[in-house]
Design brief:
By secondary structure, the protein is an alpha+beta fold. It is 19% helix and 43% strand. Helix 2 packs antiparallel against helix 3 and helix 3 packs parallel to helix 7. It starts with a strand and ends with a strand.
């Protein structure tokens, strides 16, 4: 099979870690080959010279804006170095050792210096290399024949949701305005900037300061570029682009002005101060559960009864099940002292909850004890992300004796897995993070098999079926007659588990998955609640979890 031949359009042979990561990823692959760097360089002044040009051409106000913004980046770089995961976000890497050749071209820049057009001679040089695809990783807006110089054209990131945010800096304005999500698209470039043919769209929860948010956005979205290249290499074509109308009515976002930079600095000081004060006051986020009688779709949650929690622990991720006329609830039982959770079985008697004991405990963290029946037996698939496995336990003596029955996926960081039968097939909905960013709140994957105990699961062709911090992560499953509802988490700005969304699964087949948002549940039914991220029902009883700050544990 012929390898997909790719060229990287860059501004320099030295690039950020993300272009380097992509080139390194393809280095030893046989199906995808990044063979050339195409460097569209332009004469660059020294830093002092560039500042002088800004002063002369755009005035002192714009110069002050750039200086203040550079100061913000410099300070935040120090914070990033303490994160470990993103400590090298602003570093540069030499790409020359990862490609076969470097082709330097001299595009013609517009008067603004932002738009590049390539000469006919340079276009012919690029065409002669017979690329299947060009990937833009450099700066500047590309126009003209370069957009058609390879078989599939030029694809590029726009790090922002182009329906509401065009311009830059990437990841800044979402953090400034405290938007809950920071979006991205991968598009095939056209003559219209940021309105190309959208091939991939997604979003991740917004981090609390700009550089961290940008680093998280770049790392997560880079994985989806790899997935896109994989798909093109296998199918030999680009995926279908979005066909929905996408008019843009917001302003073009730019580098913050001096007032906005100062305001941003004050916002960051406030956010950090709040985090420090909560530690000083020993306030801890604590999940709990509330229950009420009746059908889930008619629930009035302010009438629910809050369950008293045991000291030093919290309960979350409740799953209800009826057993021999009694109602039981399996929960994540988190112990603050060990910073780890196990699965506990509770019995619900009227409005009283009785703790029956530990159901499943491992040397790693367990949560989300999803329950299902298969061939007359009861099984549990708890989240066991720390083990790198998707594990299924069989109940040998209800409710407290369980044994590991099988591992259906190995070496995979999966969260909140749900298994169910529909149309003669077993389906698995799970949240995976292939980027290594330890964030399972956006990407939702679907697999199918003939048996829930099978170790061979077929990935769905739409995978990931959702890349969205608002609705990506699983939060429960409700079978209501013939209808099937997926509960999903809604993340907030710098907050995990702000609310719940209810999706009805309309179509599920080996070629198509369609779900429709039908309702949402917010943590406004009781004073002091900050979030809710899970709901379960057995048709007679409904239980919901919720988060609040607690001083005494």
């Amino acid at each position: 099979m012929k390898a997909l031949k790719v060229g990287l359009l860059v501004s320099s042979t030295f690039s950020d870690k993300y272009a380097h990561e992509l080139a390194l990823w393809t280095k030893d692959r046989e199906d995808i080959k990044i063979s050339h760097l195409i460097v569209h360089s332009s004469p660059r002044d020294s830093k002092l010279g560039r500042l002088r040009n800004v002063l002369l051409e755009q005035g002192p106000y714009v110069l002050l804006s750039k200086i203040l913004f550079r100061l913000i980046v410099s300070v935040e770089t120090l914070f990033l170095k303490r994160t470990g995961l993103h400590s090298d976000h602003y570093q540069t890497f030499d790409l020359r050792q990862l490609v076969d050749e470097v082709l330097t071209v001299a595009p013609i820049a517009s008067k603004s210096g932002l738009v590049y057009r390539f000469s006919g001679e340079d276009i012919e040089k690029i065409k002669a290399l017979d690329f299947d695809l060009l990937i833009r990783y450099g700066s500047g807006i590309l126009r003209g024949d370069i957009l058609h110089a390879s078989r599939f054209g030029v694809i590029s990131f726009h790090h922002g949701d182009n329906r509401i945010n065009r311009g830059g800096p990437a990841g800044f304005w979402e953090c400034y305005y405290e938007w809950p999500q920071t979006g991205f698209i991968i598009q095939r470039l056209t003559e219209e900037l940021d309105a190309g043919d959208v091939l991939v769209r997604g979003s991740f929860s917004t981090r609390y300061f700009y550089s961290l948010n940008q680093a998280h956005l770049y790392k997560k979205s880079n994985t989806h570029l790899k997935n896109l290249l994989n798909r093109i290499a296998v199918t030999g074509k680009l995926p279908d682009s979005e066909s929905t109308p996408n008019p843009y009515s917001n302003p073009l976002f730019r580098t913050p002005n001096p007032y906005q930079s100062v305001a941003y600095g004050l916002k960051i000081l406030k956010r950090i101060s709040i985090k420090i004060m909560t530690r000083i006051l020993m306030l801890r986020k604590r999940w709990g559960i509330s229950l009420l009688s009746g059908k889930w779709d008619k629930s009035v949650f302010w009438r629910s009864t809050e369950v008293r929690l045991p000291r030093g622990r919290f309960w979350a991720d409740p799953f209800l099940i009826s057993y021999e006329g009694r109602t039981f609830c399996f929960v994540e039982d988190y112990v603050y002292k060990t910073r780890r959770a196990h699965i506990t079985a509770l019995e619900i008697v009227g409005t009283t909850v009785v703790e029956r004991g530990i159901a499943v405990k491992e040397p790693f963290h367990l949560s989300f004890p999803f329950l299902f029946r298969y061939k007359g037996e009861l099984y549990m698939c708890p989240e066991a992300r720390e083990s790198g496995q998707i594990r299924i336990y069989r109940c040998t003596e209800f409710p407290l004796k369980w044994e590991l029955r099988t591992v259906i996926m190995e070496g995979i960081p999966a969260a909140d897995t749900m298994l169910f039968e529909r149309g003669g097939k077993w389906w698995m909905l799970t949240n995976l993070d292939e980027s290594g960013a330890v964030d399972h709140c956006s990407e939702l994957y679907l697999f199918s098999s003939d048996s829930p105990l099978d170790a061979n699961w077929t990935p769905h062709p739409q995978n990931p079926i959702r890349i969205d911090a608002c609705g990506g992560r699983n939060a429960g499953l409700i079978v209501d007659g013939e209808k099937l509802f997926r509960l999903a988490q809604r993340q907030g700005f710098d907050q995990y588990g702000l609310g719940l969304l209810v999706y009805e699964i309309k179509i599920i087949s080996e070629s198509l998955f369609v779900e429709e948002l039908v309702s949402e549940i917010n943590p406004s039914f009781r004073r002091g609640l900050r979030g809710t991220h899970h709901l379960s029902t057995d048709g007679k009883t409904t239980v919901i979890d919720h988060e609040s700050y607690s001083l005494f544990l």
